[in-house]
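quick q for whoever's on today - can somebody do inverse folding on this one?? i tried earlier but teh output was garbage lol. tokens:
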């Protein structure tokens, strides 16, 4: 087995591997390499494990050098998860061994893997994050009848309000950004530049969608989702707080979940959340079940796992 690094010649083979791997996600697609390099200027290392000319494992990595966060290797920052994909544990271990070389060569403070499955060869693991997953239905009535009575009442209240919704592509980017930038400023979260989202559509136009909710002609809520295989990945959402007593979030989530099921998707990941948070409580109302996420670390000798807010990067 050999470890090679992604070049412009083998992007298609990388994505074919991701699409067909049971743990492959939207965040593993090769286009994120270009998007992150072009948007933030960070160096990336996209590793492939090869056997007899065939890809048997992949690992996307971003190297961040920051006064605030230090020197970090991560798979994947800015996104909900990433990490090692391999045909078996031996392949995963080979990619982890190569990761150790990267850690040392870059004098990094640590290497963070955001996994949806636990890799046994990594000793340092945090389990504070989950992805809340809704099992979708093509039959809206089955989906609706699965909710508790109180939840159906809350959704009905939202549907009686003067809201309308649009689902689309880059034509909705300005309304999305107008809302999401306000939300991130209010939370004190670093704001990504508008060109970052433009580049996502440039490279992944067929794999992303935007929803915007309007009150009259005013945008009041929005969501940005990724799409791969049978899964919708909720990435960024925001709704204006002054409309929440009108159950604005219920309107947005119902429309996204309902429409995604009708379109044939099987799962909706409602974004990563901290365990026992208010966000988890709200998402459970949609019959979302927690999928454990594993933040795993490679560390320099005698170093301690980081205590950073993972939502910041």
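ok took a stab at it. sequence:
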């Amino acid at each position: 087995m050999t470890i090679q690094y992604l070049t412009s010649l083998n992007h298609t083979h990388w994505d074919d591997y991701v699409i067909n791997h049971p743990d492959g996600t939207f965040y593993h697609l090769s286009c994120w390499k270009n998007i992150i390099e072009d948007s933030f200027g960070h160096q990336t290392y996209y590793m492939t494990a090869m056997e007899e000319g065939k890809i048997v494992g992949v690992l996307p990595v971003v190297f961040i050098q920051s006064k605030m966060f230090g020197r970090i290797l991560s798979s994947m920052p800015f996104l909900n998860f990433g990490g090692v994909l391999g045909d078996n544990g031996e392949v995963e271990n080979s990619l982890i061994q190569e990761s150790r070389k990267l850690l040392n060569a870059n004098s990094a403070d640590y290497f963070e893997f955001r996994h949806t499955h636990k890799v046994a060869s990594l000793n340092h693991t945090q389990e504070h994050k989950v992805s809340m997953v809704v099992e979708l239905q093509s039959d809206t009535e089955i989906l609706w009848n699965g909710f508790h009575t109180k939840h159906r009442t809350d959704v009905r209240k939202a549907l009686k309000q003067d809201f309308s919704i649009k689902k689309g592509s880059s034509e909705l980017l300005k309304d999305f950004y107008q809302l999401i930038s306000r939300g991130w400023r209010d939370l004190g979260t670093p704001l990504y530049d508008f060109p970052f989202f433009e580049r996502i559509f440039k490279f992944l136009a067929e794999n992303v969608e935007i929803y915007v909710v309007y009150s009259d002609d005013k945008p009041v809520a929005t969501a940005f989702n990724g799409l791969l295989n049978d899964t919708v990945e909720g990435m960024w959402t925001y709704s204006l707080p002054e409309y929440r007593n009108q159950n604005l979030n219920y309107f947005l989530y119902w429309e996204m979940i309902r429409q995604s099921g009708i379109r044939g998707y099987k799962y909706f990941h409602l974004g990563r959340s901290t365990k026992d948070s208010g966000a988890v409580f709200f998402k459970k109302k949609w019959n979302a079940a927690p999928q454990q996420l594993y933040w795993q670390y490679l560390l320099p000798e005698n170093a301690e796992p980081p205590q950073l807010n993972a939502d910041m990067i």
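fwiw The chain has two domains: 2-127+293-312, 131-291. also The two ends are 33 Å apart (CA to CA). so keep that in mind when u check it
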